Amino acid sequence: MKLNIAILTVSDTRTRANDKSGDYLQTAADKAGHQVVARQIVADELYVLRAAVSTWIADSGIDVILTTGGTGFAERDVTPEAIQILFDKAIVGFGEVFRQISYDEIGSATVQSRALAGVANNTLIFCMPGSTGACRTAWEKIIVEQLDASFRPCNFTGMIKQGHAK
Questions:
Q1: 50, 109, 126, 153: which has the fewest C-beta neighbours closer than 10 Å?
Q2: What is 65-130 written as a DSSP string?
Q3: In a 3-state reduction of DSSP, which class is residue 7?
Q4: 20-24, 98-102, 110-114, 151-155, range with the lowest pLDDT
Q5: CB 146 within 8 Å of CB 155
Q6: How confident is the model at residue 31, as a pLDDT?
């Protein structure tokens, strides 16, 4: 099942020219057979971030939103506060499993990750840290399987807006 994916990089400093995490996610989604239909970079501003994601949630042509950045504890890190309120249902296990896997990679620093995921208007949303390594961990060890309709015993493709995934 080919899914339409939007990628949002949350950063005060990244540009399209140096957005390595966004580039990784785009390449990984393409390799998995999905289509990246939107990509944007926004500053760590609560309402700007919320507006961008809300627009994509309302867009019937977007099945999955991947965000990278803004999930730490720095004062400017507001992704969880901006996005969590938009969820119809939180996918609590995503953050739990991400931190479990990350512990083996970066040790106790993983407690500073506030990675999260949820569903809003039948659109899947995965919020990952800004590092390319964290995006790779989340994609390769969790997300890619959950976006694969053939993955068993279960996957998230049944939650996608009906008629939009091909």
A1: 153
A2: EEEES--SSSTT--HHHHHGGG-SEE-HHHHHHHHHHHHHHHGGGGGG---EEEEETTEEEEEE-S
A3: strand
A4: 110-114
A5: yes
A6: 98
Joined together, the tokens standing for residue 31 give 């390799």
Give me the chain's average pLDDT, please.
92
Residue range 98-127, pLDDT digits in tens: 999 999 999 898 888 899 999 999 999 999
Q: Give, in degrees to the nearest 5, the angle at Cα 142 between 35 and 29.
A: 15
Mean pLDDT of 76-85: 92
Structure tokens at 126: 């995965």
User: Angle 58-63-66 (CA atoms, 0-180°, nearest 5)?
Assistant: 95
Strands 89-90 and 116-120 come out as antiparallel
pLDDT of residue 161: 63
What are the beta bridge partners of residue 68? 9, 128
Q: Is the peptide bond before 80 cis (omega within 30 degrees of 0)?
A: no
Q: Are 111 and 129 contacting, i.e. CB atoms less than 8 angstroms apart?
A: no
Task: Assign residue 124 a region (left: φ > 0; alpha: ψ between -120 and 50; beta: otherwise).
Answer: beta
- CATH code for the domain defined by 4-159: 3.40.980.10
